Amino acid sequence: MWLFFLFVGIPLIEIALFIQVGGLIGLWATLGIVVLTAVLGTMLVRSQGAQALANLRTSFNDLNDPTEPLAHGAMILFSGALLLTPGFFTDALGFALLTPAFRNIVLRELRKRVKVESVVAGQAQWQQERTGPGVVIDGDYEVEDEAPRNGPSGWTRH
Questions:
Q1: How far is CA 50 from CA 14, 84, 109, in A?
Q2: Where in the chain are the domains?
Q3: Are the C-beta atoms of residues 2 and 72 closer than 8 Å to each other?
């Protein structure tokens, strides 16, 4: 049911807001606001995205749990997509996700629903079991033509 709301409800909200705002301030002012929020949002996403990436690098370098910087980075990326989508509702959500306080609230709610079992920093160690000399595949083949080809390789038929 929530997918129905996303695919039908959000565009209906956007259309209604465009009609209301366009009726109050006019067509060109409405379009100007939409373009201005996209440009301003792009600049904010760039700066906050760079900061989130620096926080993630610091977390990796200090061997700390990277889930929080990753979550903030993902929310900043999602806010950029919302801000580039024309509309007032999506712009409001996008700007809200750019504020660290709102991202912390969203992260706190996500932590209630998602349980992380463990985070291990360092090198991964892979072990391969060997139970015998390996797998042997028996097969037969025939050489059909040993003359060099000028055209296709012959692996596909036309």
A1: 30, 18, 25
A2: 34-113
A3: no
Using the CB atoms, write b or e for 70-109: b if 16+ within 10 Å: ebbbebbeebbebbebebbbbbebbbbbbeeeebeeeeee
Residue 114, classed as helix, strand or coil, is coil
Q: Which two tokens stand for residue 146?
A: 């040993």
In this structure, are residues 87 and 34 in contact, taking their beta carbons and an 8 Å threshold? yes
Residue type, 49: G
pLDDT at 65: 79
pTM of the model: 0.66
Q: How confident is the model at residue 63 (pLDDT cuts 50, 70, 90)?
A: confident
Q: Using 50, 70 and 90 to split pLDDT, how confident is the model at 66?
A: confident
CA distances from 131 to 126, 127, 135, 137, 138 (A): 16, 13, 10, 16, 19
> Six-digit token pair at 36?
């201005």
Burial class (CB in 10 A: 0-12, 13-18, 19+), 13: middle
